[in-house]
Amino acid sequence: MARLWDMLDAARTAVEFTEGVGFQDFLQDRKTRNAVERNLEILGEAARCVSQQTRESLSDIPWRSMIGLRNILTHEYGEIRYEVLWAVVHDKLTPLIERLEEIGVNRPPTPEQQ
């Protein structure tokens, strides 16, 4: 459950960082771009660490896409297309957040759950 919480927290944070920001402002604000990139990396890394059994039981979550984006951000950072990141944040994260909340991931895990 801890990795699912990490995913939810990173997704919420990326969305929060872009609220009220237009795409052109996003492009010109290096801090916001870097913060969003970092949270998408965290999201993908957490997704990568979720067990195969959990991934299979939640097959409607786009695991491969999240992990693939993390790999691009981490290893091919010179190839980042910000219009793609923008689309991910604005089109893909809200449904992911809703799905994670729907399955009961809504607060940080306790130390025993980690």
What is the gist of this entry?
With 114 residues, the protein is mainly alpha-helical. The protein contains six helices and no strands.
Structure description:
The chain has 114 residues and is an all-alpha fold. Helix content is 73%, strand content 0%. It contains 6 helices and no strands. The chain has helices spanning 2-18, 23-28, 30-49, 52-57, 63-75, 82-102. It is globular. It starts with a helix and ends in a 12-residue tail after the last helix. Belongs to the HepT RNase toxin family. Pfam families: HepT-like.
Arithmetic mean pLDDT: 92
Strand content is: under 5%
Percent of residues in helices? over 70%
Principal-axis shape: globular
Tally of DSSP helical segments? 6
End-to-end separation: 8 Å
| Rg, alpha carbons | 14 Å
Strands, total number: 0
Q: What about the largest sheet?
A: none
Following the backbone from N to C, one meets helices and strands in this order, namely HHHHHH
Low-confidence stretches: none
Instruction: Quickly give the structural class.
Output: mainly alpha
Keywords: Hydrolase, Nuclease, Nucleotide-binding, Phosphoprotein, Toxin-antitoxin system
GO molecular function: hydrolase activity; nucleotide binding; RNA nuclease activity
Protein name: DUF86 domain-containing protein
Organism: Anaerobaca lacustris
